[in-house]
Amino acid sequence: MKSNVFLGLGIGATLLACSANKQKSEVENPIQRPNVIFLIADDIGYGDLSCNGSKTIHTPNVERLAAQGVRFTDAHSVAATSTPSRYSLFTGHYAWRRNDTGIAAGNAGMVIRPEQPTVADMFRECGYVTGAIGKWHLGLSDRTGGQDWNGFITPGPADLGFDYSYIMAATGDRVPCVWVENQRIVNLDPNDPIEVSYKEPFPGEPLGKDHPEMLTKLKPSPNHGHNQAIVNGISRIGYMKGGKQALWEDENIADSITVKAVQFIEQHKDVPFFLYVGTNDAHVPRWPHPRFVGKSGMGPRGDALLQFDWTVGEIMAVLEKAGIAENTLIVLSSDNGPVVDDGYADQAVELLGNHKPWGEFRGGKYSSFEAGTRVPFIVSWPAQVKPGVSNALVSQIDLYASMAGLLGKTLENGAGPDSQNLLNAFLGKDAKGRDYIIEQAGSLCVSDGEWKYISPSKGAAYNKLTNTELGNSKEEQLYNLTQDIGEKKNLATEHPEIVAKLKAILEKEKAK
Ligand code: NG6
Ligand code: CA
């Protein structure tokens, strides 16, 4: 069992500095390096959690985590959708520097290239055991459609620094609806091979659009697509065939992720580990386990929030049981802001009541307005972090370099090029955080915490389907977040000098 022996040294560079080739066994320093867990929710908004002031939903486990750690009020994912957000989190490289990091299909090639350094590589080089469990959405194999679904799917998470992986290839609403463990589909019957396509339906396979009577669990919302392959009474995006025995059951997704995370922690409690857990909650299709159904009074979306909270509780409990809770650093956040109707008729809109998933912020998932990327964010590390609330401006882009800082490792050779070591901000010791952040949605935005600039975009201002104000405008937009957190008054013409300053930051970043 690990002990938590700290010698009262400052954390920054003085924890055990690791070198690339050091093996676990060579580490004899009595200072124990923390286990690190990135617990990343899907589409859970700032206002979806009671620790952030929501009175309409009760998430007690997250509250407990927040109470023992630092809860951030101005923390951001890098992008307002999953693939670019997770890409940036893992690589410390802004997804917008590439043009192929948009929402990935279920048969997309791996978006992070095997040769790109990742935060998982960094932990592994420092002697950590590393794992990725849950939502992946970063593609697999070397090209779109290049997966050997019935064999070893490569390249994959192992090439990005993960010793162990148990993932869904993309999203709950995209085929293939199977678990992939260490790059092989779990429970696949070789006599029932799996085929996946995002181009053509497979002859003889019923589709949601033609067979609404087969949609026994969830039907798509009108005009949202999601009407292709039918898996477990829910129609999805994309076509698939075969693999019947391997298909997941939607009500068991959270349990599967949680059980695998708990097992990983139990198995590695005696060595330092880095675990990424991407929950499926509260992404669509929302079909929580029966034990959560009806518990929120808000339908499946609210129930999925409670299920997420349960996952958090289970992870905290196993850490405590294993005696490693004190020296485990947990970062809890979300990949992007919230959306209510994201494609299924699950009554999320009808039953929302007074609940505000976006909190006091404007927009939501997909949006350049704040709710697109201002996400829940908690850092808990009982051994080292003093509980509190921080208004520091922080971004998930910096977790890579900051975790390297924690381990005393210097990033080199182009690793995490956009990531800064802001460890002190993440540990609640620096109240300021970044000088500015860059947010990515329909266009790029820059915020210094006080002022926010949204660059012009030709995109639609509003998405009627998801009911989202996207924040796109052909005009430049400037908001004062200190006085106008709801981004209602565009001050771009009044303050050309501030526009110029923020634009210059963006131009400089783009030129890097
Ligand atoms: C959109 C889907 C949405 C969701 C999203 C990805 C439609 C109309 N909408 O294209 O349902 O799957 O992609 O969400 O297909 S994310 O959180 O993984 O980025
Ligand atoms: Ca998401």
Task: Summarize it.
This protein is α/β, with parallel strands linked by helices. It is built from eight helices and 20 strands.
How would you explain this protein's 3D organization?
The chain folds into two domains: 35-184 and 249-429, Alkaline Phosphatase, subunit A (3-Layer(aba) Sandwich); 442-511, Arylsulfatase, C-terminal domain (2-Layer Sandwich), CATH 3.30.1120. It is 18% helix and 17% strand. The protein has helices at residues 60-67, 82-91, 119-125, 253-267, 299-321, 399-406, 423-426, 496-511; strands at 35-41, 70-76, 129-135, 164-168, 179-181, 184-185, 195-197, 230-231, 234-235, 239-241, 273-278, 328-334, 377-380, 388-395, 437-440, 444-447, 451-454, 462-463, 468-469, 477-480. The strands form five sheets. Strands 6-5-4-3-11-1-12-13-2-14 form a ten-stranded mixed β-sheet, with helices on both faces. Helix 1 (60-67) packs across helix 5. The longest helix has 23 residues, at 299-321. The structure holds 2-acetamido-2-deoxy-6-O-sulfo-beta-D-galactopyranose and calcium ion. 2-acetamido-2-deoxy-6-O-sulfo-beta-D-galactopyranose binds at residues 42-43, 81-82, 103, 137, 171, 173, 224-225, 237, 283-284, 336, 342-343.
